[in-house]
Amino acid sequence: MKKQYKTKQFVNIKITLLLCFIFFKTIAQNNSSDSISNRTINYKSFILPSTLIGYGLVALHNPALISFDNSIQKNFDMAQTNHIDDVTMLLPAASVYGLNMFGIKGKHNFKINTLIFGTASVIVLGSVLATKSITKKERPNGESNDSFPSGHTAISFMGAEFLYQEYKHLSIWYGIIGYGIATSTAYLRVHNNKHWFSDVVAGAGFGILSTKIAYALHPYLQRKLFKSKTATTIINPFYNGEHIGLSFMKNF
Questions:
Q1: Which of 2, 33, 63, 65 is the most buried (most CB within 10 A)?
Q2: Angle, nearest 10°, between helix axes 172-191 and 2-29?
Q3: Which residues on adjacent β-strands are paired with residue 234?
Q4: Rounded to the nearest 5°, which phi and psi values hold at 214?
Q5: What radius of gyration, in Å, describes the C-alpha atoms of the chain?
Q6: 149 preceded by a cis bond (ω within 30 of 0)
Q7: Span 72-86, pLDDT tens digits
């Protein structure tokens, strides 16, 4: 009986996260302005990730949602933990570079991908760490007070949205696989007794939102960082008999 109840809770977690994913996909597919090539930003695409973050924030103090967290978590207290989530959280983003290496080109080149991914990473890490330090929510296993939101989940969903944006023009299955891995990462964080359900829901929101903001900021950052298409940069080592260093020259 206990095994059946545990299985039911597992299904509930998977279904809830997958419903969030399907809802997001429905919004994303109806918006052509998600592309960074467009100058206008469709703010409707920010609704779902903001809602996921909002759910987590409300769950910090709402008795009903706290009780819901507890009802899910008690089924995993005795579960055997693993460290697979340390790997799965990186797979969606790594897939973008891996696919390019194997000749399956995404929407943008390596330089633009790295700029977008770097921007999203700064946003997600900054926002997650700041929120953790403010909320100081205790983890289910009691080991620390930095449970909210789930950083692993945020990084994984950031990568899943990155993968989706770069390859959705080829096939939606790239996004489905990426989000499937991200969902598995979220499940593992709960299974390993590292996070509450509301932590991973909010983490998903932080991850998706960070990538969307990075894509929105990209045209501005590209203009600032790469003002001239013909700009060249030369870095050479030098030694004048006394000092060793590097010379830097940039042609605009």
A1: 65
A2: 140
A3: 249
A4: -60, -40
A5: 21
A6: yes
A7: 888 776 656 788 999
Is there a contact between 188 and 82 (Cβ–Cβ < 8 Å)? Answer: yes
Label residue 27 by pLDDT band (50, 70, 90). very low
Is the separation of the CB atoms in 72 and 12 below 8 Å? yes
Task: Produce one character per residue of 118-131: b if its CB has 16 or more CB atoms within 10 Å, e if not.
Answer: ebbbebbbebbeeb
Kindly give, in sequence order, each residue whose CB lies less than 8 Å from that of residue 40, ignoring residues fewer than 6 positions away: 33
Q: Is 98 helix (H, G, I), strand (E, B) or coil?
A: helix
Q: Which residues pair with 237 in a beta bridge?
A: 246
For residue range 190-224, what is the model confidence (pLDDT) as tens digits? Answer: 989 999 999 999 999 999 999 999 999 988 888 87
pTM, entire model = 0.79
Burial 86-104 (b: 16+ CB within 10 A, else e): eebbbbbbebbeebbeeee
State the number of CA atoms in the 13 A half-sphere of 80 facing the CB: 0
Tell me the C-alpha distance between 206 and 94, whole Å: 19
DSSP 3-state of 234: strand
Q: One-letter amino acid identity for 176? A: I
Helix axes 2-29, 197-225, angle to 10 degrees: 30
| C-alpha triplet 131, 214, 17: angle, nearest 5° | 60
**Euclidean distance between CA atoms 97 and 87, whole angstroms:** 16
Q: Which sign does the torsion angle of CA 72, 74, 78, 81 carry? A: positive
